[in-house]
Design brief:
mainly alpha, 18 helices
Amino acid sequence: MNPIEQQRERARHVSGEELKSFLYHPSADVLLSLLENPALDETSLGLLLARKDLPSEVLERVAVSKAFLKSYAVKKALVFHPRAPRLVGLRLLRDLYLMDLVQYSLAPGSPAELKRHAEEYIIARLPQLPLGQRITLARRGPGRVVGALIVTGHKQVVEIALGNPRLTEAQVLKVLWREKLPQSVVLTVANHRKWSQYYNVRLALVRNAATPLSLVLNFLPQLTVDDLRELAAPGVVPENLRKYLLAEVHRRMQTSKKNEKRGEAARAEDSLAKTQDQEGSEEE
């Protein structure tokens, strides 16, 4: 029997302090044998799973053991392990508690695909969550989850969510592009000291049918002529708003023509003054 085989056989039967020393053995084969040891309890398994250099085959063996997966701590350790196989993570993510899903979705080292799944599991649970947990998520959750919370329309949740530093302009725009959005959400965004200053947010507010006309009219002077013309195309916005858009375009065009004429007059005056100066110099 070679040394590795001896170590494997020993790993199946060790206990106490000697078992603890085997948790840090470099051989994947020895560690797989250690998993067969009846003395390997949840605490020892947790120490083993805390190893960042743990071979993926050991993680896979743990992930298929019904006995090991009775422990929530083991499931969580598997999902959070940086070397966990993709399929293991996908299978166990849905079993995580809410705040553990949040923690995973915000962890820098979590794979993007699994982060997205974690966010989707959180969003699916939102309707059943009590207000306190929704407020916590609004304050600390990832951007996609915060955007989903804003759509619910709860005033306190929306106000807190809009202050979440992880909320992006893209998420706010995604909310405002939704049909049948509660007007309370539109009003809160339109009056928010940060988001109401973003040009694309103002443009989305003008497009949204739930935005009161008084707010829309306040935003019109801040939009470009090209965007106003696009909005004024038939079928884009309600007809009663379209006439205001066309009026604003007309006003801009008239102002532009007046400014152009004033510019031409000013240039003509400058040219005349230069000519007169030149003639005066020649006479002298």
